[in-house]
Amino acid sequence: MTKNRKSFYALLGIPPKHKLDEKSDWASRTFDPEHKYVTSPIFRNPFIFGGLRIIVALYILITTIIFLEEYVSQGNGDSYLSYFTNLTYIGLCAYFFASGVQTICYALRWRRNGAGAGYPLQQSWPRFLQALHVILYSTVITFPFIVTIVYWALLGGPHVWETTWSSWNAVSVHILNAFFAACELVFTNSPPVPWITLPVTILLLGSYLGVAYITYETQGFYTYSFLDPSEDGSGKLLPAYVIGIAVGQCILFTVVHFIAVLRQKLAAKYKRVIVLDESRKAKRRKGKARGGKAKAKDAEEGEEREGLGEPEGLGEDVGGVDGEGRRSKEEEDDDDAYIDIDENEWEPVQHPNSSRPEMAERERDLERGEGAGVRTSAGSSSSPRKTTSRS
């Protein structure tokens, strides 16, 4: 037998397309049904959370513009996008703007409709953009750490602190970038990065090698000295650097994934996540629990009857609760059929819930003394006892 293979979208957590007439659970056909990408276990108000994301995005945008202007003023503007550090920084800016706008949209709907109101990326955007959002998130919480580790291990030194400008650049691009990524990892409800995005991130890292060597061929320099295969550069150690960065990405990806798993468990434990249809789910759990107890009781009574040699079916409960702990419709209808007879006035009193035509007919029968179960002795002067008729 062949196993059903999941599509790339499904591995990213994106539901398949559903036809309008197809019956399916809402959560199974909705991207991010628990609104994890736009909520935080720390900031319960989504306006605050969205505002912080926008502030981070604005800071990254402003520093990017200033640093780009410096590149251009020095005649190096055409090489700005050749650096993996700058590409990663722009990716951070794009993600925080996108996630901040989505969070603000969610907050506006949350104010009108309460938690679980949804947001545009979840409800109306195409699956392709949802997939890109998940992939961008996977790069945002991994690449900045790679940049910071590689820079301070291989490239950075005392020279970066020589001027105020270079110090600010080093702090913004090679320290705060990792700090922003760590905040996104810890202070949001975003789900763990899907494993399918690990080879995607490795592919992106490998693709950057092409950018670096195209830059050398067109502009005559290596963006990073360890990418230089000559003796003046890394030489024979170049493959080791490349493989080491790839292995480091795999290790970092795994660590980040399980940090998110731990954060999710803690958020659920302390009730810092949204639970959709909480009352409905609670009722279902209670119903199943009652149904389970009823089934267990029936099983015990069945075993007792077998031990006593009672006939099959003896002692079975007629009506009562069904397998899910609910009263059957037939029993509820039977309850409506009860009519109480007042002992002193011999007048039938209709049950408040009984308004069906057969109830009226039963009342007329009782008034004529023909109701089932009413028996009087000939010549008896005593009042008839209270009886109950079950239709």
Automatic annotation (TrEMBL):
Residues 331-346 have a biased composition (Acidic residues). GO terms for cellular component: membrane. Residues 310-322 have a biased composition (Gly residues). Residues 375-391 have a biased composition (Low complexity). The chain crosses the membrane at residues 47-68, 88-108, 128-154, 166-188, 195-216, 236-262. Residues 358-370 have a biased composition (Basic and acidic residues). This is Uncharacterized protein. Keywords: Membrane, Transmembrane, Transmembrane helix. Residues 286-391 are annotated as: Disordered. Signal peptide: none annotated. It comes from Coprinopsis cinerea (strain Okayama-7 / 130 / ATCC MYA-4618 / FGSC 9003) (Inky cap fungus). It comes from the Eukaryota. The lineage of its organism: Eukaryota, Fungi, Dikarya, Basidiomycota, Agaricomycotina.
